[in-house]
Amino acid sequence: MHLTHKIALRPTPKQADYFARACGTARKVWNWALDEWSKQYAGGGKPNAMALKKQFNAIKYELYPWLKDIHRDAHAQPFTHLDKAWSQFFAEIKAGKPAHEPRFKKKGRCHDSFYVANDKFSLEGQAIRLPKIGTVAMTETLRFEGRILGATVSRTADRWFVAVQVEVSDEQAMLRRTGHGTVGVDLGIKSAAILSNGESIQAPRPLKAALRRLKIRSRRLSRQLEAAKLAVGLAPGARPPRGTRLPVSNNRRKSAAKLARLHARIANLRADFTHQLTTRLCRENQAVVIEDLNVRGMLANDRLARAISDVGFGMFRQQMNYKAQRYGMRLVVADRWYPSSRLCSVCGWKYEALTLRERTWACADCGTHHDRDHNAARNLERLATATALPVASPAGNGGAAAGRVPAAVGKVTPVNHECGQQGASGQEERCEHLCSPF
Ligand SMILES: [Zn+2]
């Protein structure tokens, strides 16, 4: 199993300066490669990473003379990354998922990072020896034992980190579970998560406070940006033409730095919170059911976007995936068409007209009062047990109007995939469980 340990670094000013230049190099090379790739592709060619790298190597010192001072891994890796990004893009298109093409990286805008291959660095206690700059102090020692695969140095606001990838044996990666429960988790907007046992988990106060401050500070920065546009004669809200340099006031620079630090703090708080939640869920349960939310698709929807990115759905899902493996926990991911909010978890009646605003509702069939999120979590939990409520796939849903979905529906597709110790069971096996609840 591949595990990554991200460790904060304590570079000297000289080392930090090298890091910044190496990141700049990685970004420039990425942009060069992406530009060249697109040109060749548009010209009917079939670009590939190897050929592009060769092409780049022939002209690189002419193009960027300062490249000699930067270790070659920083400018070799972007080609591999670009290759991967394109493959992923085409795979997603093929699977009918929303995808975006690899994009140009902007200075200060994107995640600044560069790569170091495993034969170019070494670790000794709380220190890492990197090419060109020597030993850099780390805030902790590497947590995992195993074959080291590589490292990525990155910056978040004004702090530097190294993420070391390690291949560890499955036995070493396995962690001990403390419980054997089964739980459904509904990731909410009001509370961070609601469990099927009724427990609601709130985002920590500091995170909430930081998010409130984020609103205020982003507004302040965008006001200053509008003022700068006005100063060069641009209409408010207009997009400055490419290459325009807006005047940068001291206040705007300060606001931008503050905002970047706040973003970094929020990212940290959110990561901590998500780690605690996912560890707890995986440690205490033998099976956890979560929803397959189409995060990208939802982020395109403005109204939901903020709330969703606040809870960090994508991060949650990713952590659940690898922790399920480490704890030997069965992770069940409900199909994104599974109407977990709309089914009555007591009798199975389906409330077709449920809107996002309705936080509570009463079942028209059995009269049970439901809290929206708790009911959803209970329906999710059922997917891991033999009592799941039947539901037709969206394609086969036409015949069944409002009301109870007939138990004899042939096509049942609530479970998307499972992972963890018990692995994925076959589709037929699942149908047998899901078609005969009551
Ligand atoms: Zn009911």
TrEMBL record:
InterPro entries: Cas12f1-like_TNB, RNA-guided_DNA_endo/Transpos, Transposase, Transposase_put_HTH. Residues 1-46 form the Transposase putative helix-turn-helix domain. Residues 165-300 form the Probable transposase IS891/IS1136/IS1341 domain. In the N-terminal section; belongs to the transposase 2 family. GO terms for biological process: DNA recombination; transposition. Residues 313-380 form the Cas12f1-like TNB domain. One of its GO terms (molecular function) is DNA binding. This is Transposase, IS605 OrfB family. Keywords: DNA recombination, DNA-binding, Metal-binding, Transposition, Zinc.
